[in-house]
Design brief:
The structure is a single chain. The chain has three helices and no strands. With about 70 residues, it is mainly α. The radius of gyration is 22 Å and the shape is rod-shaped.
Amino acid sequence: MVFGFALSNVIDQIPFETAALPTVKTFPVDYNPKYYFIAGTFAIITTYFAGWFPAQKASKVDPVIIIRGK
């Protein structure tokens, strides 16, 4: 999330010229903490499932068979 915040700061400095929004001078970025919370929650949940599914499959295999390479 720190990397995302730093990247958001860089993107926030990019000039944004449009005739539809004459008062907007840079690319609009919203720094609302709600979005950081959503991103952190999503990252934790996806990481959990990315580890849980392979672990469930591996738990059904006998370790001796894996060590012997069969």
